[in-house]
Amino acid sequence: MKLLLDTHIFLWFISGNPKLSTPVLTAIRDPNNDVYLSVVLIWESIVKYQLGKLSLPQSPEIYLPQQRVRHQLASLSLDEDSVAKLIKLPLLHRDPFDRMLICQALHHRLTLATVDQKIRAYSIRII
Question: Which phi-psi region, left, alpha or beta, contains residue 72 (left: φ > 0; alpha: ψ -120 to 50)?
Answer without folding.
Answer: left
